[in-house]
Amino acid sequence: MEYKVLNNGLRMPMVGLGVYNISERETQRVVEDAISVGYRSIDTAAMYYNEKGVGDAVRACGVPREELFITTKICDSCYTKEETLRTVDHSMKQLGLDYVDLMLIHWPVVNQCETHVLYQQRKMLEYLRPYNVALEAWSPLAEGRHGIFKNPVLMRIGEKYGKTSAQVALKFLIQNGIIIIPKTTHKERMVENINLFDFTLSDDDLREIRLLDTGRNVTGWPSDALKYNPESV
């Protein structure tokens, strides 16, 4: 596993598992599977309603707590002092852990936003670099949209290395210093998504993949979300 040293000195794994949209009932099994195949970073949030499953998995997995990097989040409408304290307390009770490694507000130690080969966030990377803020990609595979898994450029590059188009897309982000948290409930895909450190994309590969950038997101978040929660702006 490769790590990103954050501007507070913590080492954050470059690959983690995001558990957004995974049911509370499934979460413990999914997280235990992920840890068993080598994941050490798990990303949850109060609004995912599955923090308890993450905490249960951490306690049951047999891996020392200090070897794991657990992220949860302050919800977008909880930015006053009182609301922040309340949501932190709620998350800690749900997780049942003594501490989390990252309590995310989407900045400034880590800025988590939609990033993938179709929406590469180059301006964001340039903006964050002087502040030593890490960029973390959610939806690093563009939710499978726009034919990303059948993209001929990614498939052709993957054939050179014996890798899938998804692995090439994820490796591109890592080689640009971007942390990734691909979500899956399938153990075999967890293995695929973490087996990224036995090959390196060439400069020519990177140039070709940069040309895939459309400059547009595919999820509609956060702009759509702000329509329903404008006070969080």
UniProtKB/TrEMBL annotation:
Q: Which PROSITE patterns match?
A: ALDOKETO_REDUCTASE_1, ALDOKETO_REDUCTASE_3
Q: Which residues form the active site?
A: 48 (proton donor)
- Which GO molecular function annotation, any one, does this entry have? oxidoreductase activity, acting on the CH-OH group of donors, NAD or NADP as acceptor
Positions of the record's site feature: Lowers pKa of active site Tyr: 73
Q: Which residues form the NADP-dependent oxidoreductase domain?
A: 21-108
Q: Which residues bind substrate?
A: 106
Pfam families cross-referenced by the UniProt entry = Aldo_ket_red
Q: InterPro entries given for it?
A: AKR, Aldo/ket_reductase_CS, NAD(P)_OxRdtase_dom_sf, NADP_OxRdtase_dom
Q: Does the keyword Lyase apply?
A: no
UniProt keyword list: NADP, Oxidoreductase
Q: Which domain of life is it from?
A: Bacteria
Question: PANTHER family under this entry?
Answer: 2,5-DIKETO-D-GLUCONIC ACID REDUCTASE, NADP-DEPENDENT OXIDOREDUCTASE DOMAIN-CONTAINING PROTEIN
Similarity field: Belongs to the aldo/keto reductase family.
| Protein name per its UniProtKB record | Aldo/keto reductase
Q: Which organism is it from?
A: Xylanibacter ruminicola (Prevotella ruminicola)
